[in-house]
Amino acid sequence: MAMSLKLNIPTNAPRGSPAFTQALKASFALHAFQADQVQFCKSSEESVSLEAPKENIKIVDINAIVRLFARIGGAPWKATDRAPDDAWIEWEEVVLRPRIREIQTVLDLAEKLLTKSGISKSGGVTPAQIILFSTLYDTIATAPPSILDKHLQLKSWYYTTLESDWAIEGIQKAANMTTVSSLDASSTKAVKKAPVAADKLPKKPVVIGTEADRKINDNIKMKIPAPGEKILPEPGKKNILITSALPYVNNVPHLGNIIGSVLSADVYSRYCKARNYNCLYVCGTDEYGTATETKAIEEGVTPRQLCDKYNALHREVYEWFNIGFDHFGRTTTQEQTDIAQDIFLKLYKHGYLTEDSITQLYCEKHDGFLADRYVEGTCPNCQYDDARGDQCDKCGKLLDPMELINPRCKLDDATPVVRPTKHIYLKLDELQPQQEEWFKKSVTEGNWSKNGRTITESWLKEGLQKRAITRDLFWGTPVPLPGYEKKVLYVWFDACIGYVSITATYTKDWEKWWKNPNDVKLYQFMGKDNVPFHSVIFPSSQLGTKDPWTMVNHISTTEYLQYEGGKFSKSRNVGVFGNNAQDTGIPPDVWRFYLLSSRPETGDTQFIWRDFILKNNSELLARLGNFVNRLVKFAAAKYEGLVPDYTNAAQDPAVGLFIADVDKLVKEYVKELEAVHIRAGTEILMHIAQRGNQFLQDNKLDNATFAAEPAKTAGVVGLGLNLIYLLSALCYPYMPATAESMARQLNAPLRTIPDTWDMDLLPGHRIGKAEYLFSMIDAKKEEEWRNKYGGDRKVEEALKEEERKKKADKKKAKKAEMKAKAGIVETVKDAAAAVLPEGSLNVGTSSVN
Q1: Which EC numbers characterise this protein's activity in its record (predicted)?
Q2: 700, CA 20 to 30 Å: which among 102, 289, 542, 802?
Q3: Angle formed by the axes of helices 18-33 and 127-141, nearest 10°
Q4: Are residues 264 and 184 in the same domain?
């Protein structure tokens, strides 16, 4: 609208007057619909009016003005909205005001029309809501607190609306423009009956806090490095080096990949930083090896072009998920070549490498030796017919290509032949005594996760064998020995060295992290299939160099995250991949929390859309979001945005118990996170939020309590705001954007995670403006998302039916085996009875067995 508009508000408009109700409507509408171009003016008129002076236009119908502001502010407006709004206008102007004087009759009619119109379920602010709310405001606010006890739906809608931004700001604006501060006798009497209502009209609007308004305890601020500042370990301090398994560049990461390594590591990294430890988190894309060559051939590009493409794609996915790497690099660098070749040559120098001529599969069709992943066939262990030459994806067994049944070349489907070729082997058998001694110390001191411990023990118990660490490829780190110019280092010998080389691209002082075992603790995060390479092969390589390496202190592993009862599959369009999550419109923090709360730590877990929606609505929104929003808005409305004096609150035994409960939970949280029990932290976080909600409920934080028990209410609000500040710190590892919003609403810096709960927001500290942390997800989205990301249902059902059949066959075989055993027992009994004296045969189950 191009015209200049001027809104005239009568200055002589005492509480309870029609003019004051009109002023409220106009103020509410301005803030609700953000009609910023309208000029607010005080006037001596008897009612509110809207003028366009240049056009000589004047509107005096307040309801028409409200609807006009809705149009100016761009509020959604459908033809179907007009009839209900017209009904409300007629009811408010014609029925309610002139004819009805009895309050309960007004409330009865209001609740009836509220239900009929569906306003309480409206997804946004409408003129009808503003008309109804402003009409009822004086009636309810100046009446006894019990006035709405018989009208529960109206009560719920009214107090929810009362805490909305547009209501709070509109009341403040109307109070400043009218004579409400100099009330007439009748209004003064009403206010004395309900001081809550008077406080709802502060003399000045809430000011968003600034740093100068802060009153907080010292030494609680999280230490954040300045731009360009390198994070380095410091002697005598807690220095934590964190890595997550390097994602391979031949695919888009799915949710299982994300929770299995980078997200889990990010939580621990953020936790360490929120404890002000010296912590460095590095990761990057793993870019060498057969898989890269194969994928490049499939896409018709060079390996370098493929790596550039997927490195950028991975970065975008992780940036959206707010993964806070200190450095995200790649393995195709000169630093990788230099460090990997240095390790190789030191192993060679100390006699831990050996050359051997072996037979290897060779493809005559394209004239080349086939590295592991160029060979496919049937797994000799589980008969899966699509196993790779290095590993079976179904049973997880590591394989040699020569073991495959009916092998075939991945590139051209030809049947390969066997030919001799030379390779370099790492003598893991000779390194096993050193490796075992190190492992026993590390697994105990570092408290490894169970599956990391079990998998490593299994390898050691079976006995380590020499293992080839070179391959017949061209895309990889060159082997630094004469005669091996056409070979490269095996990717799983090379890949773990990527952590070191990526650190070297971050800082030239990389050895302060990687060759500093006395001052640095190394934590590594991965899926369980990556364990042997991090717990056996890489540590053995480090030990064999005889350099003072920083070796892994703690290995944190995950099982598998399944999708709706099946596996993620890009080819069958099953499951949510990294670039799909953003398309749903659900914020990253909700994804992060759901994945972390269902992290597959001790067994496989499932991603279920219904659970995802429920987790958002019933936990994040209902417990945490509502707790924060309710308190921040209450403090803004009742205390002009200042933390009230709560210093005497702890003298109440119930409050003391509440503080002790929270303090105990904080200690549990720290204990679990120090032990890298990541999923447990989400449970404790929600438990603390729920304890906060219970505290508000037990103390009946509402207008009536504020009026009747001001000291008690101040204590509850002051402690509640401090609990929000604590929760912001505990949220930070899991939901960093949520933590930042909470701190911003409190006008406070990101704070450290404490050992115990202290009150760090002091009385008189000015908070900021309320923000919504989470939004409701419509339950109908479940079916939409399942259809979009569920893949081919027929294929899924066929796979499930196949799995059911296998289980049934297995059960049938078990029964047959038990029946056969039972037959053997009967045969033994018959034979024994024939040769032993009568009564001497004892055939209890344990005896026969």
Answers
A1: 6.1.1.10
A2: 102
A3: 130
A4: no
Q: How many domains does the chain have?
A: 4
| DSSP code at position 121 | G
169 within some domain:
yes
* Residue 312: Cβ-neighbour burial (10 angstroms; 0-12, 13-18, 19+): exposed
Which residues lie across from 269 on neighbouring strands? none
Instruction: Please check whether residue 742 is in contact with residue 727, taking contact to mean a CB–CB distance below 8 angstroms.
Output: yes
Using alpha carbons, list the distances in angstroms from residue 71 to 50, 59, 161, 194, 671. Answer: 14, 15, 21, 36, 55
Residues 149 and 246 in one domain: no
CA 240 distance to own-chain centroid? 22
In this structure, the number of other CB atoms found within 10 A of the CB of residue 341 comes to 17
Residues 6+ apart with CB under 8 A from 45: 8, 10
Strands 353-363 and 520-527: unpaired
> Phi and psi of 431, rounded to 5°?
-85, -10
Are 512 and 607 within one domain? no
For the chain, how far is it from start to end, CA to CA, in angstroms?
93
Say whether both 819 and 720 belong to one domain: no
CATH number at residue 132: 1.20.1050.130
CB-CB contact of 424 with 477 (8 Å): no
CA distance 632 to 768: 8
- Rounded distance, CA 525 to CA 521, Å? 13
In whole angstroms, give the CA distance from residue 445 to residue 453: 12
Closest CA to 692 of 666, 740, 727, 648: 727
Spatial contact of 682 and 596, defined as CB atoms under 8 Å apart:
yes
User: Which residues make beta-bridge pairs with 359?
Assistant: 420
pLDDT, tens only, 710-736: 999 999 999 999 999 999 999 999 999
List Cα–Cα distances, 808 to 381, 439, 525, 643, 795, in angstroms: 20, 41, 37, 65, 20
Within a 13 Å sphere around the CA of 414, how many CA atoms are in the beta-carbon half? 15
- What was the pLDDT predicted at 22? 82
**Ranges in the chain, pLDDT < 70:** 1-3, 15-16, 34-37, 55, 73-102, 116-124, 138, 141-145, 172, 175-209, 571, 791-803, 806, 814, 817-849
Range of the structural domain that residue 695 is part of: 583-787
Rounded to whole angstroms, what are the CA distances from 737 to 180, 324, 326, 675, 774?
A: 40, 12, 17, 24, 11
Rounded CA-CA distance 727/741 in Å is 11
- The CA angle 80-86-90, to the nearest 5 degrees, is 160
Query: Does 347 fall in a domain?
Result: no
Dump the DSSP string for 796-829: HHHHHHHHHHHHHHHHHHHHHHHHHHHHHHHHHH
